[in-house]
Each structure stands twice: as C-alpha cells, then as structure tokens.
C-alpha cells in the first residue's frame, strides 16, 4: 500500500527504533518523488514553449494569408486564448505546484529527523517521560473517564 506524505511524516513515539530505521527510506522515497515531479514540470514547460512557438507561427501565417495587418499584441492575444495553449499552461502550472509541494515535503523529512533526535535527547535527559509511561497515564485517564461515565449513567 502506498502511503501519503502526511501518513509518512507522523512519528510513532512508542517505537522510536522503527522510526529511526524507516527515516532514510522515507526521505529517499519523497526525494525521488520530488525529483520526478520537477522533471515533469520541466518537461511540460518545454512542451508549453514549443506549443507557443507553433501557435505563433500558425497565427502569423493566418494573418499573412488573409492579408491582415497585425501587431505583436494581437498575435500574443490569439496564442494566449488558444485552447491548446491554455490546456498545456494549466498542466504546467499544476505540475509546478506539485513539484514545489514535494520539494517542501522532502525537506519536511529533514525536520522529521530533527524531531526524532529531539525526542530521543529529551527522553535521555529526562525532559520527556518515556513513551510507555505516557501510554500508561493515558490508559489510566481513559479508565477514569469510563468509570465516571458509568457513575453518571447510574445516577440518571
């Protein structure tokens, strides 16, 4: 099953050893995706420029063949309003957005590594309680909540 970056970025503080083992693989997974997304964006940018050149040539020929006078602004307006140009421009914009998001995700995994280090250092120095203690306290709190709800129901 493929996971999202939001799922992969989460840290299971109850299994830090597993998190440390997964970290390099997760980083490279998202770095590769970022590189592929950047490549797609560059490719679409190139295709967009080629399409733009083709359309300039097409519309310039149309104006000349019809013996119409035209300006660069008129030619530019025809190219920019052409549906093929709009479509490739939208694809390129979406690809650039995806590439930027994935580039940021790649760096988020650097931050994840720093977070793992801080959690580990905090546990070693006694700043944080060990994850098991937190889990036990959470279970105690849940048990107390259940009991208070039972008592409340009995009174009703």
User: Ranges with pLDDT <50 over ≥5 residues?
Assistant: none
- Structural class, by secondary structure, is mainly alpha
Termini Cα gap: 47 Å
Compute the average pLDDT: 88
Number of strands: 0
Instruction: Classify the beta-strand content into a percent band.
Output: under 5%
Q: Which of globular, elongated, flat, extended, rod-shaped describes the shape? A: elongated
The helical percent reads: over 70%
Largest sheet: none
| Helix/strand order | HHHHH
What does the radius of gyration come to?
Answer: 29 Å
How many individual helices?
5
Describe the structure.
The protein is an all-alpha fold and 156 residues long. The chain has a domain at 13-109. The protein is 85% helix and 0% strand. It has helices at 5-9, 16-65, 72-81, 83-125, 131-155. It is elongated, with a radius of gyration of 29 Å. The model has no long low-confidence stretch (mean pLDDT 88).
């Amino acid at each position: 099953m493929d996971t999202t970056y939001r799922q992969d970025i989460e840290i299971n503080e109850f299994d830090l050893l597993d998190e440390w083992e997964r970290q390099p693989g997760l980083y490279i997974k998202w770095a590769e995706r970022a590189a592929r997304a950047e490549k797609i964006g560059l490719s679409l940018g190139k295709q967009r420029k080629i399409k733009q050149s083709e359309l300039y040539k097409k519309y310039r020929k149309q104006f000349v063949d019809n013996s119409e006078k035209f300006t660069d602004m008129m030619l530019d307006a025809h190219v920019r309003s052409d549906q093929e140009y709009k479509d490739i421009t939208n694809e390129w914009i979406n690809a650039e957005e995806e590439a930027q998001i994935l580039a940021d995700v790649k760096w988020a995994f650097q931050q994840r590594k720093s977070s793992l280090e801080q959690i580990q250092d905090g546990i070693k120095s006694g700043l944080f309680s060990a994850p098991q203690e937190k889990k036990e306290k959470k279970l105690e709190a849940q048990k107390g909540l259940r009991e208070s709800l039972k008592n409340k129901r009995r009174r009703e």
